[in-house]
Amino acid sequence: MAIVLFWGALAYGEINTKGHKCLLPAQDFMEVDNCIFSSKTGQLFIAPTYIKELSFEKHGLAVLYSSEEGWMYVNRKGRVVISGVAAMDNGADVFHDGLVRFTKDNKWGFADVTGKIVVPAIYDCAFNFENGLAKVSHGCELKCVDEGCEYFYFSGGEWFYINTRGKIVKKDIFKEDSHEQRRTD
Q1: Domain ranges, residue 61
Q2: Is 44 contained in some domain?
Q3: Nearest to 74 by CA among 97, 87, 57, 91
Q4: Mean pLDDT in order along the chain per 10 residues (185 residues)
Q5: What 3-state DSSP class applies to 128?
Q6: What's the total number of domains in the chain?
Q7: Cβ neighbours of 184 (radius 10 Å)
């Protein structure tokens, strides 16, 4: 534990010594204790002993899950660069056109591979980008398909397209139910 605290203090300043559990997807979702810590400024990072347990993709990011923080992307140094990543098929959503969906305060936004928020979390619903455009909505609702809400869809609202910079490029594309069935975690 002293090594973890020493590393965290060097890398991120003073840390919260109480770590959260996390699941390591690359290790068949093995749950481990004291995996995620936060600095005094709120920056999340994982204990260095677990970095080697992660599977990093081409952008140098690995996915991690915590019941307290949800799905997140972690860089090779163990710093959480994107938290609140949308869930898709019992895992973290993946990048589309260089951006990934995340949620904050029940709103949807998009972040890039560095963790920079490109489109703030201001939309009530959002689909992934495809060919440089994403369908987003104000006023839509998430509706459960089944009792446990394992599957859901977006319903109602005013829908429109945005580009990868967040600029609205086409309004009022439809106002009906959008049946993107997704699995939650």
Answers
A1: 1-94
A2: yes
A3: 57
A4: 36 54 74 87 90 90 89 95 90 94 96 97 96 95 84 89 94 57 46
A5: coil
A6: 1
A7: 15
